[in-house]
Amino acid sequence: MTHPRPDTPPAGEKASLVRGIFARIAGRYDLLNALLSLGLHRPWRRRAAAHLDLHQGSRVVDLCCGTGELTAALADLAGPENVVGVDFVPEMLERARLRHPELRFVEGDALATGLPGGAFDGASVAFALRNVEDVEALFREMARLIRPGGRVVSLELTRPPGLLGCLHGLVLRWIVPLVGRLFSGQGGAYRYLARSIAEFLPAEEVADLMRRAGLEEIRIVPLTGGIVTLHLGRRPAHE
User: Is the pLDDT of residue 132 over 80?
Assistant: First the structure.
């Protein structure tokens, strides 16, 4: 029998914990992303956007959009007027609107956005699966938002195999909280974020949740040795 860690949020309280963490780190979020990923977060996001097979005029929604980095990459492909970013942390959305005033951002719950169903050609989420209360529910909402035949993509930090995985574990345990404390004063927040990576679901389990949510043609694409992973899927064209 397993027992939750003392610092693991009880069921139903994760959303409140995550909202508070991201509210505190919003001001330094982009800087810390650049430092901790060695600048790779931008090409990772561009790869994710490319897998949605967008063109000018495609309609796309970016869930858990944070400060809008992936939303902007999607807008480069589809046009800024055709993209909407959704997040439930007002402080992150404030940064997104300052950085990308040409884009539309709305405050909302990624598990129940309130946006019309079938209104988009593609849906994306980046670095957020491990922070939501119900991963399958997130994929169900993504499937609902896109038209039949539309695509979804998830980009998430994951645990690489082998020796790289051992080194990665040391970075998560020691370096990430230290850098978070030095550059944002939020070592505790970054300890949580590092632990959320180490304890997240294996890639195949995420793929199974996508299938249970009604998606098909699931693909798993590791990047940078498995430090991050793309999950790709499609809503069935004929339902």
Answer: yes
Please say if the pLDDT value at position 103 is more than 80: yes
Q: What are phi and psi of 109, to 5 degrees?
A: -85, 125
Query: Are 201 and 135 contacting, i.e. CB atoms less than 8 angstroms apart?
Result: yes
The one-letter amino acid code at 13 reads E
Q: Does the domain formed by 48-158+200-234 have CATH 3.40.50.150?
A: yes
Higher-pLDDT residue of 11, 25: 25
Q: In the chain, where are the structural domains located?
A: 48-158+200-234
Instruction: Order the strands of the 120-126 sheet from edge to edge.
Output: 104-107, 83-87, 60-63, 120-126, 146-157, 228-234, 216-223
Paired tokens of 87 = 């997040």
The two three-digit tokens of residue 187, written as one number:
């070592």
Q: What is the pLDDT of residues 18-71, one digit of tens each?
A: 999 999 999 988 988 888 898 999 999 999 999 999 999 999 999 999 999 999
CB atoms within 10 A of CB 78: 22
